[in-house]
Amino acid sequence: MENQKYNDLKLGERGAMISIIAYIFLSILKLIVGFISSSDALKADGLNNTTDIIASIAVLIGLKIAQRPPDKDHKYGHWKSETVASLIASFIMFAVGIQVITDTVRSFFAEEKASPDILAAYIGIFSAIVMYFVYRYNKRLGARINSKAVMAAAKDNISDAWVSIGTAIGIFGAQLNMPWLDSFTAFIVGLLICKTAWDIFKEATHELTDGFDVEKLSAYKELISKVNGVKGINGIKGRNYGNNEVIDAVIFVESSLNINEAHDIATLVEEEMKNRYGVYDVHIHVEPDKEEGTS
Hints:
This protein is mostly helical. It is about 70% helix and about 10% strand. It has helices at about 1-35, 40-65, 80-110, 120-145, 150-175, 180-210, 215-225, 260-275; strands at about 230-240, 245-255, 280-290. The chain has a three-stranded mixed sheet with strand order 1-2-3, with helices on one face. A hairpin with a 2-residue loop joins strand 1 and strand 2 (about 245-255). The longest helix is centred in the N-terminal third of the chain and has 36 residues, at about 1-35. The two termini are about 30 Å apart. The mean pLDDT is about 85.
């Protein structure tokens, strides 16, 4: 299973690379056309894509580091590297989002300007189409290799597609003698950048502080309780190492069992968890069931 996990990380790099290439192309295109057409919204969208480049590079670096095997001072491996990279990327995205909002607020109080060129709107539509196809690719890849990082990248891709559509709508609206609508759209884009940064930050810190999905724990507990020989569960905990789940559980077995029989039940629980839910590692502690119905 471990070799397959490393192979999946390698495949995940492909999705990150495609995102990086797409974002580099679109950010350059949007920024150039944004300046030429005097569109604050398109420039803000271009800056949004520059943060996506950084975020995707961070994911790529994290995926590469995560592939390193355990060493003398990383006995559990380097799986959390991609989570740390995502956290760093969220800080950068926050900074860019705040800058976009600040610049847009200033533009509201600047001299009245003409509506942006309609070309900017067409670039927004084109960008949305490109990002939709990148989203479809990363979504399929993320589901195939069960990668949180790639699935998160896919969500970012579709979010960027919607941002570009919003940008185009704002620019089209600005043609109706409402040039302020372009700046207003840029302000919304800045807020969306900060929202995406917050979502990434929240998920990364939740994982780094050993937060775990309580609904998953309930499902795992139910599965363990149905394993033949398990008389009850005294406790269950979970944590993540990158895309890998590690589960710790204390189970009760018949007190009359010898150590080999108790060990066999623990092994059966571990195999069920790995086969049914793909859990990376399971640690089972066995205790004697001294009272009937203990749980």
